[in-house]
Every structure is written in structure tokens, then in C-alpha cells.
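Input chain follows. Return C-alpha cells only.
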Amino acid sequence: MIYESFTFTDPQGFEIYVYKWLPEDASAIKGIVQIAHGMAETAARYERFAEHLTKEGYIVYANDHRGHGMTARDLDNVGYIGEDGFNWMVKDVYQLNRTIADENPGMPIFLFAHSMGSFIGQRYIEQYGDSIKAIVLSGTNGKPGPELPFGVMISKYQAKKYGSRFKSHLMNKLSFGSFNNAIKPINTEFDWLSSDPQEVDKYISDPFCGTVFSASFFRDFLLGLKAIHLKENLDRIPKQLPIYITSGDKDPVGKFGKGPTQMLEVYKALGIKDVSLKLYKDKRHEMLNETNRDEVMKDISHWLNSHI
């Protein structure tokens, strides 16, 4: 596998860092996988998945979103994504997508979107669905519950009173505080991520992972979740766009399988012709870092291969 990196600057002036992994054999390339990573992690964590994909003949691109990893540059900036940040993360994914298309004319581009990235992906296909061949939504969820307006109110208040960069421990607790409740025994606050303790420890030891995010992040993210489920936005998803949803049935983000199942039904009701769901029994949030990760990666690449 060959590794490269580059940056691009978006219209708001954020310099976005991009990882690029290529197969050793250039003649074997058959497509592109663009990755949108999750909240409070980095694109570097997808290197193992990229190694699998490059062996399958894919070039892989993954940008660190605003407020994450090398795009944040230093720990003081982690968790701050700028004003209207959620919508700009979606636009950044599209800007990278256009660069990918220019660099690889005629190649199919697939979007793999995990966790927060999956919500970016849900919004992306409402705005730019024609720019990709298909999408994989990993560790995702369906329509937010009645608590969403309360979260918007709190995060708006905190951002206004304390500033956009104020780290909201309250919103962090309200968002993730219950995620370990169904897990026994509990060894760390991040056990909900994976049943593999070594993977959880790797996450905890990374200073760019697990950070408490800003009040303005939560405000913009929650408003983005609301926008995703407006009927006029859902109706804009191309009906011919293939969608693959994958999750663990013990993932608290997806309400233990209920959220991904709801999205399956939403997309079917919209008339999406090719949509499917796979739930992995007794597995948690990060399927690429679960104990059965080899099975998961093979399932994903098999689905991608079937849509070339």
C-alpha cells in the first residue's frame, strides 16, 4: 500500500488534511472509496481498513474533518468546527469528492461514512447524491427523538453565553453519558465503542480522540440532524443510489439496531431501489474495530465489488 497526503482550503479558510492510500499495483485499480470519519476521532484510524480496500483494488481518500486530527492541527482546536460547522463539513466532503473525480476521471466513487460521518453522509446524499456511485452508512441512527430541541436550546445558550469554543461537558454527558449502561463489566467510559479492549485502549491513548467538543459543535450538529429528516430534503436523494447500512446490534448510537432499521424503512418508503441492512449480533459501535472486523471488512468490500 502506498501512502500520500495533501491539504485543500475550503471557502471558509479551513485547511483540510487528507490521507490517501493507493494499491501497489496501479493496473488493478477499479474504484475509489472516500471515507467520512466519526466524531472525536481521526481519519488515520482507518488505515487498516484502507489496507484491506487497496488489496481489493480501491484507492482510498479520507479527510480529517474540521476540529479533528491533522485538520485541527493542535489539541486546542479539537472540537471546534467553525460557524455553521456541520453544513460546512458536508461541503468539505463534496469539495474533496470533486478533487477525487478530477484526479481519477471515469472511476466510480463510493462514500463510506461512519457515526458522525454517517450523518454527514445522510445529508450529503440529499445534496450531492449524484456525485457518488453508492454509499455505506456505518454506526448510524434514524430520526432524532423529542429530546433534540432541548439539546439545541442548551447548546445555543452555552455558545452564546460562553463563546463558540466553549467545551460543553454538559452536552457531552447528555449525548454519551448513557452509552455504557447496557455493558457489563465496564472498564472505561468508551467500552461502548468496541468489545475488543485493545481497540478501546488505542482510542483512549490517542490524544486526538475522545475530546469534549464545543457547544457550537453540538448546536450545529443537532440542527444538521433535524435538517436530514425534513421531507423536502429526503425527497432529493437519488432513487437509483445504492445504500448499504451496517451496524452492531449492541450499538447505543443506533439504539441497539432500531435506528439503522428505521433508516432502512425510510429509504425503502422513499423508493430507493437498492437499500440493505446488516446488523452484527452482540457487536458495538465501531464495526471496523470489533472482534469480527475481518468479516465486516470483507462484507463491505464484497458489497462494493457487487456495485462496480
